[in-house]
Amino acid sequence: MNKDIGTYSESSLHHSLKFSYSAAGQTEVNIGGYVCDGQAETGELIEVQTGSFGPIKEKIKELSKNKKVRLIYPIIIKKYIELYDTDGNLIRKKKSPKKGSIWDLFASLVYAPELCLLPKLTLELTLLDIVEKRINDGKGAWRRKYITIKDKIPLVWHESIIIKEPKDYYLFIPFKDESFTARDLSEKAGISRQLAQKCLYVLHKTGIIERTGKQKNAYKYKIGDISLAAKHRQFVR
C-alpha cells in the first residue's frame, strides 16, 4: 500500500510546481512504497510541501538514503483572495495584508530540524505570488467564517533560493562575530519574536549556531563551528 495520498485534493499551486520541477521526467513515482510528486530526468526525486515538514520527515529521510531528493517549499510573498458564492459568482477580490518571507521556512522546519543535515537533500524555496480562491459555502474553518479555500493558483514567480549545505543557513544569521538573542534576531530581520525563536531552535538543534550563555532569561547565540555540523550529517538517519 502506498504511504502517501497522491493527487487527492491537489491545488493548482502544488500541481504546477510538481510538473515544473519534474520537467521531462515523471510525476507520481512510487519509490519503496512512498509516492513522490515527481522524478527529474537526472533521477532526483521531487517532493512539493506547502505545509509543515513534520508529516513528511520520515518519508524524506528514507528516500534520501538512496537517492537525491529536492524538497520544494513555496513562499507566498503576495496573496490575492477571490471570494465566490456557491454558484461561482465573484463576490469580491482583495489583496491579503499578510506578506510572506524566506523566514516562513522555519514555521515548517521547526517540526523536522534534522532535515537540515540530510546529505542528499536539496531544499529549494520558491518565492511567488498566488491567487487564493475561496467559496462562501458555510463549510470552511470557523476562523475563516466557515469559508472554504477551493484552490491556490500561482500568479507570479520571483526567484528560488537553494539550500544544500549547513553553511547555506548562514543566510539566516545577520550577525558576524557578536552574540545575539531571539530579540536581536527579531529586530534585525524584521520578523516576530516567535518566528525568530523557531529559527534559532532549528539552527541550534543542528549545530549551525551554539549557545554562549544567557542575557537575563534569554539565551545568547553565536555562529557555531560549521565543520562540526557538516561532519554530523553522516550520522543522520
In short:
The chain has 237 residues and is of the alpha+beta class. It has six helices and nine strands. The strands form two sheets. Strands 1, 2, 3, 4, 5, 6 and 7 form a seven-stranded mixed beta sheet that branches.
Provide an overview of this structure.
It is a single chain. The protein has helices spanning 12-22, 57-63, 105-109, 182-189, 193-205, 226-232; strands at 26-31, 34-39, 45-48, 69-84, 90-95, 121-135, 148-163, 209-215, 218-223. The strands form two sheets. Strands 1, 2, 3, 4, 5, 6 and 7 form a seven-stranded mixed beta sheet that branches. Strands 8-9 form a two-stranded antiparallel ribbon. Helix 4 (182-189) packs across helix 5. The longest helix has 13 residues, at 193-205. The protein folds into two domains: 1-79 and 94-131 and 154-164, no CATH class; 171-237, Winged helix-like DNA-binding domain superfamily/Winged helix DNA-binding domain (Arc Repressor Mutant, subunit A). By secondary structure, the protein is α+β, with helices and mostly antiparallel strands. The protein is globular, with a radius of gyration of 20 Å.
